[in-house]
Amino acid sequence: MAKVIMVQGTMSGAGKSLLVAGLCRVFRQDGYRVAPFKSQNMALNSFITKEGLEMGRAQVVQAEACGAEPSVLMNPILLKPTTDVGSQVIVNGEVLGNMSAAEYFAMKRSLIPRIMEAFEKLSARNDIVVIEGAGSPAEINLKSDDIVNMGLAEMVKAPVLLVGDIDRGGVFAQIYGTVALLEEDEKRLVKATVINKFRGDVEILRPGLSMLEELTGKPVAGVLPYLQVDIEDEDSLTERFEREGTAALDIAVVRLPRISNFTDFSALEATAGVGLRYVNSARKLGHPDLVILPGTKSTIADLLWLRQSGLEAAIKKLAAAGTPVCGVCGGYQMLGRRITDSCGAEGGGSVEGLGLLPMVTDFAAEKHRTRVTGRVIHSGYLPELAGAELEGYEIHMGVTALDRDAQPLAELENGMLDGCISGHVWGSYLHGFFDTESSRAALLAMLCRRKGIDESELTAFDYAAYKEQQYDLLANAVRKNLDMGMIYRILEGGIEA
Fold this sequence. Notes:
This protein is α/β, with parallel strands linked by helices. It contains 16 helices and 26 strands. Helix 1 (16-29) packs parallel to helix 2 (57-66) and helix 1 (16-29) crosses helix 15 (463-481).
């Protein structure tokens, strides 16, 4: 069975996901077969595996850092919030159902056998498993039924690294308070602490580190700086939504209240010459070169918000003036004439769409999950898109019917048709639409032509190679700033606490 180490945090956003990815990359570089594991993840950014199963994207990122194929074994439970007090519960990649927080809390311990089965299979296939916790292990109202922090650490006998975020302030109180609230057997599982997101001269921090070690009885394994690496982050706390700036091309993504899979736009964000920003008001929308409606976990509710916020009217005005508008998944559904929820997936009812595409959507009880490839067969007023190769995955509950004379956007390798295009407005169910070099280059060429700028102002690049470079930069930072000798001793069980 694999050796195991667990990363827990003093709070959400402490940097657990990134540190796990960094450790995974380091262990892989050192020649080990390594895999990430998170028993329960709550996120709206998800991914479809080759088997057609759904998992959280954070573990996909970590799997990429390992050089491993993403598997639902790495994330056996995924919670996708549907309301402030309820989520869709996905177990081993399949939808179990929608539950309130109270309903899930009452039954989650029954999922322990599935968690352990996934962990044991993953452990048997690898040399090292790096586990990520969730939130904080010191949530004293939740500890009795914990399956993701200390409860899991005890089940799999995992030594724990406790990470605190100094950028938010109060990191010594975070770490000391967390340790103080643990039970004695839980404290013994914590082998070392890590200070994350530090800006400044670490020598000034060292007296505090010594006092922290004395107070907690735990060594400090290192101080990680605030890293400037471009790696996908957790959806709920991402800083991407706040980015602003100017570039040759201006792309506006509507920041829907329940936005999902905004990782669809990571490749565009990383392209030199592209300024991609997230907007949540008509005032901020302005006059971009392209408007994108992204995916959402609650299509009807977010469509109504779009209408009430004034963004619908602003988008339709831009479309009427010739600005290209694109929709992905739920955003694609919004562009049609009507959305009907006859199966009650989002509470039932029917609502008018933006009316920019000649189609209607009806929600189905079964979620459609698949990985696909294809190519654009109709390009409307956007000729550069014709023939662009596509690759990605579908996650949706809607069945969309195009009007008789409407043009589908793409033909998939399985013979099915996807999407719709009308003039300079188009949409697709395909997450990852902008990831292939072919589709991205076609899109940017089209936008450059329409704006009258030279394509050479934009830098074409290999996105897959770019991501590999970012994982290596992350690993270099982990090696430089953490005591990897201590980490390996913890893996070998050589540090008592």
